[in-house]
Design a protein that fits this description.
By secondary structure, the chain is an alpha/beta fold. It folds into two domains: 4-215, Spore Coat Polysaccharide Biosynthesis Protein SpsA, Chain A; 224-335, no CATH class. The chain contains 13 helices and ten strands. Strands 1, 2, 3, 4, 5, 6, 7, 8, 9 and 10 form a ten-stranded mixed sheet that branches. Helix 2 links the parallel strand 2 and strand 3. It is globular and about 60 Å long.
Length: 338
């Protein structure tokens, strides 16, 4: 069995996908690369076919009608032959030395029969036009050099959470939990990095800066103006995550504290973007989001509302909204996101 399947969701990616795929090819026969062309209207499909022809058995090109980011991951998971599973978006890439470390460590753990459910690595914000890049690392919060469980995860800062770019899952675990992401919906990477977690018991952290997360491209889904225009989809994902916690995650589950931390961040992002959009309707929508959460799960609402981010983004009135935006701008400058 191949060690690792990497799915590359690709939509109109012809101008930048070479950098991504070329960075993955160094994995050799240990890695299966699935380029999933999501109904592109440029040369993405032809480029994918050319890679598949040049690297038979290592690269597969999969063509499908447009269904969005989630649909490409669904197809990739259905087709995956690797023991482990990772997603690398077509405008991102991996550090080659870190990548080889990841593959070697996965193989070593398998050889020792030390099955893991999830491997975590670091990621780097590669912001367009910003000379100094910011890495998000977990070396102070996670044990190193051994398998561990949720009870050993330290308290993460508000700038730290395990986004899709940090995660390698065991493929069978994703299939066992029946992961299926919504189609025609942006920001489902949060669902991918969130909903399988209750099934994760054995974790391994490798302190390498693997994933290079490119931000700043015009029209990118995580650009602020684009996120504001798609707030309905951000809110849909936010509500799905909250409902999942309420319905399926016991409050004494080992992963509950971390998942509440993640949900607090996502709910703060939703709230802040609603404030940032600057309309009376969006202010009402923010209030409705928190009200629905309270009615749905008072315990979870209380945890989120009492957190630092929850307090900042629910301050009342126009002065409260100004404080929310000031905190957002400070975080934007410090972290370097869009």
């Amino acid at each position: 069995m191949t060690t690792l399947t990497i799915v590359v969701p690709s939509y109109n990616s012809a101008d930048f996908m070479d950098r991504c795929i070329d960075s993955l090819l160094i994995g050799g026969d240990d890695v299966e690369i699935l380029i999933v062309n999501d109904g592109s209207r440029d040369a993405t499909g032809e480029i994918a076919d050319a890679y598949a022809a040049r690297y038979p058995g290592r690269v597969r090109a999969i063509h499908k009608a447009n269904g969005g980011h989630g649909s490409t991951i669904n197809v990739g998971l259905a087709e995956a032959r690797g023991r482990y599973f990772k997603v690398v978006d077509s405008d991102d890439w991996v550090d080659q030395d870190a990548y080889l470390d990841v593959i070697a460590t996965l193989k070593r753990l398998d050889g020792e029969d030390a099955r893991i459910d999830m491997m975590l690595t670091n990621f780097v914000y590669e912001k367009e036009g910003r000379e100094k890049k910011r890495a998000v690392r977990f070396r102070k919060q996670l044990p190193q050099g051994r398998v561990f469980g949720w009870d050993e995860v330290g308290r993460l800062r508000k700038t730290q959470y395990l986004i899709m770019h940090t995660i390698v899952y065991r493929t069978d675990l994703l299939r066992q939990v029946g992961l299926r992401l919504p189609e025609h919906t942006f920001y489902v990477d949060n669902i991918f990095a969130f909903m399988p977690l209750p099934a994760v018991e054995r974790i391994y952290y490798l302190d390498v800066d693997l994933y290079r997360y490119f931000i700043g491209r015009e029209g990118q889904s995580v650009a602020e103006e684009v996120m504001i225009s798609r707030l309905d989809q951000q809110l849909r994902v936010n509500r799905m995550m909250a409902q999942h916690m309420t319905d399926t995650v016991p409050k004494d589950a080992p992963c509950y504290r971390y998942m509440a931390h993640y949900l607090e961040i996502i709910t703060a992002v939703s709230s802040t973007l609603l404030v940032r959009s600057g309309t009376d309707e969006s202010v009402l929508a923010k209030e409705a989001l928190w009200r629905e959460l309270r009615e749905q799960d008072r315990y979870l609402h209380r945890r989120l509302r009492r957190g630092a981010l929850g307090q900042i983004c629910t301050l009342p009135g126009r002065p409260g909204r100004k404080v929310t935006l000031a905190a957002y701008r400070a975080a934007q400058w410090r972290v370097g996101f869009n």
